[in-house]
Every structure is written in C-alpha cells, then in structure tokens.
Design goal:
3 helices; alpha/beta
Length: 109
C-alpha cells in the first residue's frame, strides 16, 4: 500500500475551507480531517488543490507556430506548452490538433 499524508494545508472542500490533513492511499483520497498531525508533508498553511482539466484547447498549435511563418520543433513546442499550462494549475489537457496541422507536420518531416 502506497500512502502519502499532507498536513497543515488549506483544503478547499465543496462546502467549506479548512486547515487540515489529507491522506492519499494508492492514488486515491482516503481521508480528510481538520487539524494538523506531527508527521507527513507539512504545507505550512498553503493551499492544496486538485489540478484543473482542460477539455479543449488549440494551444499546442499556437506553440508550434507562434507567428505566421515561424515553426518550432514539436518537442520544444510541447515542452513550452506543458510548462505554460502547469504554471496555471492545469495538469490534464485534451488538445484539439487540426488535421491541417497534422498534414503540415507530415510535410515538414
């Protein structure tokens, strides 16, 4: 069993915000309790929030071609894209890459 304990974090719950402890077991939230325990990762009162999910975006296309006539390598564009979204709290992305972009990438390869 894999367990992580996060304590002394501000937890934003559906009906309240509390300073407390969150236990994750095997990748799932197992327990949330108000109060601080003496073990686990101490958040020092910072917020602990889930990552956001972006269900549709064309941002990767903009990273691959930021201006007309400018093309970045796919790997560099993907790294920039991921870093940009992670800095905004987005941890999961479903990019909508158009067929035209895929066709152009095939021509450039």
């Amino acid at each position: 069993m894999n367990e992580q304990i996060y304590t002394n974090y501000r937890l934003q719950l559906p009906d309240q915000e509390l300073l407390g402890t969150l236990v994750v077991r095997d990748g799932l939230i197992a327990d949330i309790q108000p109060g601080i325990v003496s073990y686990g990762q101490n958040g020092q009162g910072d917020y602990l929030l889930p990552g956001l999910i972006e269900l549709h975006t064309d941002n990767l296309e903009r990273c691959m071609s930021p201006r007309p006539g400018i093309r970045w390598p796919l790997e560099a564009a993907a790294v920039y894209h991921d870093r940009d979204l992670a800095s905004a709290g987005i941890t999961t992305v479903c990019d909508a890459i158009s067929q035209l972009v895929m066709w152009r990438l095939a021509l450039l390869a």
